[in-house]
Amino acid sequence: MYHQYIVRETGEIASEHLIADRFIDLLYNRVREQAPALFRALTSERVSGLLGFLHFDLNLPVASRRGRALLTRMGVDWRECLAPHHSFTTPRQVFERTIRYWECRPMDPDPEVVVSPADAKVLIGSLAEMPSLFVKEKFFSVPELLGEDLPWHPFFAGGDFAVFRLTPDKYHYNHMPVSGEVIDFYEIDGRYHSCNPRAQIALASLHAKNRRVVTIIDTDVEGGTHIGLVAMIEVVALMIGDIVQCYSTSGYDDPRPIVKGMRLAKGCPKSLYRPGSSTDILLFQREAVTFCDDLARNLCRRDVRSRFSAGLGQPLVETDVRVRSTIAGKQRDQATTAHLLRP
Hints:
Blueprint: E1 3-7, E2 13-16, H1 21-34, H2 36-42, H3 45-56, H4 67-73, H5 91-95, H6 101-104, E3 113-115, E4 120-126, H7 133-139, H8 142-146, E5 160-166, E6 173-175, E7 180-188, H9 197-202, E8 212-218, E9 229-235, E10 242-245, E11 263-264, E12 269-274, E13 278-284, E14 289-291, H10 293-299, H11 307-312, E15 319-321, E16 326-330, H12 338-341
Parallel strand pairs: 1-15
Antiparallel strand pairs: 1-2, 3-16, 4-5, 4-15, 5-13, 6-12, 7-8, 7-11, 8-9, 9-13, 10-12, 14-16
């Protein structure tokens, strides 16, 4: 079965060609059930890095695998790139490309909107109102995702979430979805599971089993988005070698690591995945935001052949969004109290 999603700009239904789909099916069904030791080995950091090298680093001396031909083969618009098209000689260089985001990824100037952190396919939902607990447990357990021994998960109980799935053709810099102050920043160790929809259906709470970086942002500060606390979780996946924190307020110049107490501005580059497919997750406090109408409508469409819908027995459809595009706004007439909730 193929996987479909909605293209936000046009509203059309598009089909995704999933990389190594048969291998993922074999790995997350037969191998996981019948050879758990082999399954653990194949989702380890070492094997993930090896697969990433073979897929993204081999510099083959073939004209059709260089320059504009390479960019076209990987589904990239070379006109967005900062580097000239003839400089691209490996898939890794395409994967880690920089773009003129200030021109080709415009952002709403409204200080109280939330923007997409990535070029990705997004699913939205509410931890209080999803029609089935099965759905929530399939994607993540909030305590497990944020760290059960850490104080943050109670603040997001009953809140909203957005899951952004980046595929290998996407621009892989993450940008800030909100403005605010970093009040916690930490890494949780884990595996390197695929973010293929088939894998997410097969293995419950897959994202909370992968290595991930968590940034807790207080937006109720001067110059902030004023929607309370926001958790941004960057999750590795199969063939992802690293998450490089490289925040910059002007293009990609003077990149800096993320530290507590740092003020971050919405829309600025925050980090880079190296390379493969990966996932961003945003968590919001209860009654803090309202998602855009088109994302909510698309989520429940029954005319789209989504693997999530088929695997979970109810409509669950992704929308393809661009980084820095608006995904939500502040829920009106709701006072946020993040400044009172800091531990």
